[in-house]
Each structure stands twice: as C-alpha cells, then as structure tokens.
Design a protein that fits this description.
Blueprint lengths: L5 E5 L7 H14 L2 E8 L11 H29 L3 E7 L2 H9 L4 E6 L4 H7 L2 H8 L4 E5 L4
Parallel strand pairs: 1-2, 1-4, 2-3, 4-5
Helix pairs in contact: 1-2, 3-5
C-alpha cells in the first residue's frame, strides 16, 4: 500500500459530512498525514435569478461565507487532534473541483447521504462521480440518518 501523506476532505458544510470529517481527521492523525479541507461554491445559474445583480452577488457571498465556516470547522477539529489542516475554497462544479484538487493528494474522504432508488437515479451523487473518476483511492463515509 502506498504512503498516505496528503488527505483531501471534501465538505459541503452540512451535518451529513461530519462523519466523513471525523474519519478523515482520525485517519490523518494515525498516518501522520496532512489534510486539505475543500468546500466548492457552485456557480449560480444567472437565468434563474432576478435581473438585479445585487441578489446574485448576495447569494454568492452567502455561499462563500458558508464555505469559509465549513473549512474552518474542519481546521478546528484538526487543531484539536493535532492534525495540520489547510482550508481551501474553490468555485465550480463540486465533482470537477474535487477531482482537480485530488490530483495532488493520496486519498479523498467524502461523505454521502446514501441515496437509493429513483432519488439516486435522478439526482446523481457527487461521491459516486468522484469515486468513479478519482486519481487516487476514495473513502466514502455514509452520513448519519435523520
């Protein structure tokens, strides 16, 4: 097995990704690895927004703020465990950005809601697409059921 020295933890800031964050940080601690906490801000489809551009900027700023909080939360957990965490916010398609950033990592840790049936068929899954095209191993951690 290859040495795992750089772990990418993808987060969307929801409680559903918390188990993945916990697994990733604990694994990094055991392996002496560094972590990158990644939050991806999806572009806002301008066609679905009102003509007032201030609304678009406001929504985008809100998403960026949510992202900063999400990666800082991962950093805080890492600090408490003695794991070096680098927060990163990127803009674009979540799966494409995760795959792009993963090119420089040894492992991706990502959460999933565990969708099944028609919901999975119609909505797809970022975790599934990342797993399918990842340049490195992927640890998919199921989120807690509500």
């Amino acid at each position: 097995m290859q040495n795992i020295k750089k772990i990418l933890i993808a987060t969307d800031g929801s409680e559903h990704t918390r188990p993945a964050i916990d697994y990733g940080i604990h694994l990094a601690k055991m392996l002496g690895a560094k972590v990158t906490a990644l939050y991806v801000v999806e572009p806002i489809p301008v066609t679905s927004m009102p003509a007032d551009s201030s609304v678009v900027f406001s929504v985008h700023a809100s998403l960026e703020s949510e992202g900063k909080k999400a990666v800082e939360d991962v950093k805080k957990i890492g600090d408490e465990m003695g794991v070096e965490v680098t927060p990163m916010i990127a803009e674009g398609s979540p799966e494409k950005k995760i795959l792009e950033v993963a090119a420089d990592h040894d492992l991706i840790v990502i959460g999933t809601l565990g969708r099944t049936g028609l919901s999975k068929f119609f909505m797809g899954s970022v975790a599934e697409r990342v797993t399918r095209y990842a340049p490195c191993p992927v640890l998919v951690v199921r989120g807690r059921k509500e």
